[in-house]
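Posting here for the record, re: pyridoxal-5'-phosphate.
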Amino acid sequence: MAAQLAILGGSPAVTVDAGERYKRPVEEEKKAVCELIDQGVLTGAGTGLPRQFEEEFKEFIGCKYVLTTDHGHTALASCYFAAGLGAGDEFIHPTIGYIGSYAGALHMGATPVFCEIDPKTLLADPADIEKRITPKTRVINPIHMCGRVCDMDALLDICRRHNLVLVEDAAHAHGSEWGGVKIGNLGHIAGFSCQGISPRGKPVAGGEAGIVCTNDRELYERALIYCHLHRVGALDELTNPVYKQLEPQLLGWKWRAHPLALAIARVSLKTLPERIEKFIANREELADKIRDIPGLELAHNYPKAKAAEIYGGLRFIYDPEALGGLSAKRFCEALNAEGVPMSPNGLGHIEHLRAIYTKDLPGLWGPGHPGPANIPLPRYKKGDFPVSESLVDRVLALPGWIEPAPGLIDQVALAIRKVVDNYRALL
Ligand SMILES: Cc1ncc(COP(=O)(O)O)c(C=O)c1O
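Prediction output follows.
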């Protein structure tokens, strides 16, 4: 259908509000926060509200052990310690990843070994991971990016065969499932982030906080001794006779969550199931309406996955060749003019091209130190990860909606169709 594109002076296809209309229960958050202020409870772990949140999150995930932390990256750092990672060990992380995910491992002196992502799921590619295992590999650290679930069967099988620990980055994946089981209740140990605030923050958000989940008592106790200095009752909780000999300061890090953050996160947790169901229903409605449109497809989800996707939103794989070489940037500009908030920068960070792996940075780690814990960092260059690098200009991001304005999904689908049908006018 020939129609004048909005970017060329036509009328925008989207006429209703394209924003998120879901409103978080702010009054409930204020009440929860004020109760703690009134009680004078602004610190503490292993007791009171922090303990209550841990019990509630445990029930939600269905796992045996939950430990709250002050951030997602400290939750993950505690997971690496729990896994026994140390200086000189290797861990495998997708190059389309996040330094905050593996900073804990990096600063211990463990060596990041990056792997490719799968071009359809945009998640760590299990076959590529397996090729990169060496005698030094100890941990695999995939990311359930934007709540899309990695191939847990393949990853757990690799870990079993090579005797590795799966440290899942579940920063975006609260409520995501694999085969009907929630992330955090399947692998060895998982770290969640509670950064931001609903609806665009992490699925369970409280400003800044993190959560460790595991079904393994030993991993739980190791995470706890690493980062919960002065947790109430910690020494009584510990069963490992070695860890029980520690003082109440444990190993000294005080990465406990702030009770005020957990008070807000508790409110967020209550609304999560409803937000996920609504988001998925809207995603599926949009997916059905654009399935036949050439040049654009939603990132694939594995059949066993239930992807929450409420943090970071939807990812599309764009094929410029299907639209006469139209760049992702120009395609998105045309969509933006139609009223669709699609961004061309959907891929994320490229880890192997960070300055620390590609540049000479004398003195960065201290005089005479070649890298963290005196271990040199690996060197990488452009071209080392051709599959992941080829996706740089091909992944688009759309926030998705929990509660869209009536008619919005229809209009977004029509807008995408309009731009694709008229792409020649943009060349
Ligand atoms: C993939 C991923 N991993 C880990 C983290 C770290 O979480 P936090 O910001 O709570 O430390 C984030 C934060 O955005 C993230 O996106």
